[in-house]
Write a structure and sequence with these properties.
The complex is a heterodimer. Chain A is of the alpha+beta class. Chain A contains 4 helices and 7 strands; from the N terminus they run αβββααββαββ. By secondary structure, chain B is an alpha/beta fold. In chain B, strands 2-1-3-4-5 form a 5-stranded parallel β-sheet, sandwiched between helices.
Amino acid sequence: MDPESTKELLADVFSQVAERLAFMFSEPAEEDEFPDFCQQALMATMTFEGPTTGRLTLAVPHDMCPELTANVLGLDPDDDAITESASQDALKELLNITCGHVLTTLAGEEPIFNLSVPEIAPLPNDGWNKLYREAGTCPLLVDDNPVLIHLQLDS
Amino acid sequence: MGLKVLLVDDSETVRAVMAKTFDLAGLDIEAVHHAANGKEALAVLRQESVDLVFTDINMPVMGGVEMLETMKQDSALANIPVVIVSTEGSATRVDQLKEKGVSAYVRKPFTPEGLREVIDSIIGDSNGS
């Protein structure tokens, strides 16, 4: 799959999932409106094995997580329930659901994939720019927040 | 008389989302029990009266499929309907799960309407307002 087709697929699937899960609206970002640096970002990753193996990565600014979590849970962003742990859970769930739908779009509904448990880590300062510049990475604006999503296919 | 449901997922956030979705669906829920994995769920099922179980597949300690298999071998639990809630979209996997006795399969992200439809198909449409 060429990088441009990958970007289109990721943008399409992610926008549907983000809208249904978190009522957040996303659109592909133009280069001149997208930051190539993000000081505090979180990266969620998960791998999959099946007819195709690979990894899906999602990077978001740390500041976006409370808003995401509040929307997922239907709470106010200042609610005490919006903890760091809940934020990480919400981000993992967003990635998890996106991955399931990306695989169905890629491979259809017959194959079975084994999905890993999503993992979260802080993205190093230069990590955002590296991921942004990687071929096939899809930059999106999600309710005005910059988001990167990257699909790596190993086979 | 409302439904007593058990939500099984290792993410507390996901369980909270499901509980919220029951509210949005207008379902008459009397009690919502929580478990973080299949092993915890079996302990809850042996202590509490539960009408319906919603479970994830992939969880630490004990996953949803192993929990289901254990339930089917226990006469006290074998008839409690189990709904799998998962991100996976494989029709082959869904068929395999139904052969194991799963009552229904809900793919994430789910909507209140979708969840209600599934519950109605299992317990009839007498639930809710």
